[in-house]
Write a structure and sequence with these properties.
This is MBL fold metallo-hydrolase. The chain is an alpha/beta fold. It has helices at about 40-50, 70, 75-80, 95, 105-110, 120-130, 205-215, 235-245, and strands at about 5-10, 10-15, 20-25, 30-35, 60-65, 85-90, 140, 155-160, 165-170, 175-180, 225, 230-235. The protein has a seven-stranded mixed β-sheet. Strands 8-9-10-11-12 form a five-stranded mixed β-sheet, with helices on one face.
Length: about 250
């Protein structure tokens, strides 16, 4: 299965993997990779780098929105094979090391199996490595506050709730928000289209996830690149507030 690579702005590509998105930011010969999909998405991940004229050796850093398996899948592979640093919010670093796990449990999935889309999503998750053990041996906290000295100059924005250390990435010069799972536009287990929170079972603390939508609503931007679902064009503020209204 080929990854769906879409250029959404100059030097910015949103990639739809098997069930999760990642983002490629390019600047000259260097790349910033935001998230890495499932373990089973690795072939698609490497192909997406090639599709934008890059290679894994060109990735200056991997930025992880949060340490769920569908976003962390190939982070350790890139770190071990190419020496690529893997950066997360400081509260998410131990999560990436798997000192604890803030992820939907088998029991929660079973209790929600009656909901439309949950069983097919579960089967896909198992096949894609969603239950694999994919810790990052040496994850690092973001090296500085404010814009990171990486292609795209992304600014980490702490948006807790989905996990304690979830971070979105704001590209103010481009008017882009990479929202991870703090703000989605679709999911295999959701019947809603457009800006939304993921279904409740996926959030470690749902109330904090709802509150983090106000953090995103304060950011300027006209282009939303979510961890799940298609690109959304329009004011980020309106998208975040629409998701909050749907969540309340």
């Amino acid at each position: 299965m080929q990854a769906d690579v879409r250029q959404v702005a100059d030097g910015i590509h949103l990639v739809h993997g098997s069930n999760t998105n990642w983002v490629i930011l390019t600047e000259g010969d260097e790349i910033t990779l935001v998230d890495t999909g499932y373990l089973g998405d690795r072939e698609q991940l490497l192909a997406s780098l090639e599709a934008v004229g890059g290679a894994p050796e060109a990735v200056a850093a991997v930025l992880i929105t949060h340490a769920h398996n569908d976003h962390l899948g190939s982070a350790e592979y890139l770190r071990c094979t190419y020496g690529t640093p893997v950066y997360l919010h400081e509260a998410e670093v131990p999560h990436a090391r798997r000192e604890f796990l803030q992820q939907v449990t088998v029991g929660q999935v079973v209790r929600n199996s009656w909901r439309p889309g949950v069983l097919p999503w579960s089967v896909h998750t198992l096949r894609a490595g969603g239950m694999a053990h994919v810790p990052v041996a040496a994850p690092e906290p973001f090296p500085a506050a404010g814009p990171l000295d990486l292609p795209g100059r992304p600014v980490p924005v702490h948006t807790p709730g989905h996990t304690d250390g979830h971070a979105a990435f704001h590209l103010p010069d481009s008017g882009v928000l990479i929202s991870g799972d703090a703000l989605a536009t679709g999911h295999a287990t959701s019947r809603i289209q457009g800006p939304q929170l993921l279904p409740d079972m996926f959030h470690h603390e749902r109330a904090r996830a709802v509150a983090s939508l106000d953090i995103l609503a304060a950011l300027d931007g006209e282009l939303l690149l979510p961890g799940h679902g298609p690109v959304h064009r329009g004011p980020v503020r309106e998208a975040a507030l629409q998701a909050k209204e749907r969540a309340l």
